[in-house]
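Hi L., both proteins are below.
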Amino acid sequence: MDRRTGMGVVARRGAVLAAFMVVSLTLAACGGDEKTPEVPVNSDSMITYESHEALVKAAEDEGGTLKIYTSTQPESIEVILASFQDKYPNVDVEITEQSGSDTPRILLEVQGEATDYDVLYLSQEVYGSYLPYLEQVDMLSMVKSGVLDMPEEMINPKVPYTMAAGSGMAGFSYNPKLLDPSLVPESWEDFLDPALKGKKFLVDIEPVNLATMIPAWGEDKVYEFAEKIGEQEPVWARGETNAITLMGAGEYELHFASNYHSAYRASLESPETIEVALLEPIPVRLTQVQGIRKGADNVAGATLFLEHMASQEMQDVLDEMEPQQSSIYAEGSDLAKLIEGKELSLWTWDYFPVMPAYLEEILETWGFPSAE
């Protein structure tokens, strides 16, 4: 049975190792999440608002400028900013794009109380490191009471002051003009075909999507599969966008465990030479994760912004402009439609603290050094 769904700068090893060390040092500098301190949640002392009207009034009374970190692209930021200002004209807002390389600096600034940003982007790799520095705004109870309008599933039930406005899926991408049709994978195991051994496909050395298979397959099967992928002697790469672009330009045939949104964007630019598809179980992660900094000047305004990101209007932006990074929990979103009736490997909130350990295990399996 055909289980495919969806749409029909690679470096030498030394450079890839250098790129990997940057990733490793980032995790090391941020402390990772493997030893994340537990932050007690006291529902009696958490911040809530009696009504949406009271929340809006509080936001307007805060004054100053609501400052936000986000991982969305500049083009999306412009639309998000205009939309929020149109909805809440009495709340001044400033939105700044945060890249992966910004994470160590921003986390240190938060820990040292050296930032005035209100809304923080919580990278999964260091999610737990942020928790002690977040304002405990009980979004979940406010959703249940009707104060906030967003799907409950977007909120971490154990840490209800963090939410994920988006999702990330993994599939694979390929150049249909180069790859033999008989070698187009119909299952994840098809990447182990002997005909694909020896520099026949690309593998990104940040194995987040492979680790996301653990909820469905379990650790042992994923580590065994990772070892077999390494034995296929793939082309190791760092940076999906560049790698997939080069594939579309004719330099490579196939990309393993691609971020769906990255491959989808590339396929829009090169529809004749890049196709992207999904394999079951589909690895799915929660993304666009945000929370409110403890001691923020604009807590009410920040809460409104997080609610706004869950709105249908903003989910459409995540689908159309990011693209394909809406929440699977948003009714009618592109990703919700894509996964309907499919087997998933869902990386829920409970898995967030252990991602660094899983990544390290896979990278060691592949023979890459781990950060001390």
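That was the first. Here is the second:
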Amino acid sequence: MLGDQEVAGLYAAADSGDLTSFQTQIPQLWRAVAQAEPSEATEVLERITGLFERVPRPAAAYLAVVAGRLVDRGAAPGTLPGVLADALVEILELATGFVTAWRRALGSSAPLPAGDGEQQDFDAAVVALTRSSRLPWRRGSTVDEAVALAGAWFTLGEWQTPVVALLHSREVRADFPRRPEITALITRLREDRHDLQGLRNLLAILDDEPLIVVHREQRRGYRVRISGVGDNFQLYTLLADTLIGDPGQGLLDGDRPEPSWVAAATTGPADAADQIDARFQLTDGDGQYIPLEGRPADIPLSRGSRVIVLDRVAVSRSWDVGRRHDCAAPEVRLDEILTVDEVDRWLSQVAGLIPTGLPAVRIHLSMRPQAGV
């Protein structure tokens, strides 16, 4: 069976406590299975998943990366999401502890080491954390504490990598364990570990989420369901593509987005077009402008539903094409066209448009949604 020898070697090293041998053999495993077919990748992933409970977390960090690569090769995740969620919570907790210990030992203004450091950076961090001081508020950590904290800090990037790979799947996102805990811990680290932002955005993706969308001027409304939408740039484009059409069929009057815009916002080439032009303005149920840089999860609930109110474009806007997550396939589905009475009821419950104070000029948002995670 593919990778048998390498997997057996890893178990032998883990059971004997030889962590140096264990870590040395992980790249050998990947070289042996890098071209695995999906069925083979699934078998290998099933066999290596048991290794995570046999070695300390930092020693298994690159094994976690290999597990994520096997998922990318088509392996069925199996029990991996639960294993990685537990490990990631532990690593994130230790990483927040590292920040506290570092600032306690070196002072609040001391810059934190980069999270992608080498062995010498790890060694230097352990020395810094254990350094004694005459200042009582700068108490050093024990060697064991410092090793655990620094190990988490410098391997956090590896641990997040396979979780990102898993969260590209809608099925995995639906049941991913400990999601609120992981999100809360990442939020605590947001000022110190900017490399976690992509993972945080993936965790915030809504799937099978109902929206109420009403057009104030045209008095039309819709029940829409979204999945896998990374930000409001993408949501805007796909809403326009879904809802603009034949008014005789209950859709909105207007110009549909160009096919190249839709391709760039979904699964086509991200550079299929230069820019996207606004078709309407989005506000929430409280009358507040919905920032395109935000995410659907940020749209507030209004009477139990996320409500989007469409208005005529007050300020001509455009933005660069692209999508935040290349591998998370988005969907915006029209479930139901509301009756006029239902539209009027929703419009009577939402706030009027709050003036933005923006000048009546054309605005181009030059920031491109960040893709690649």
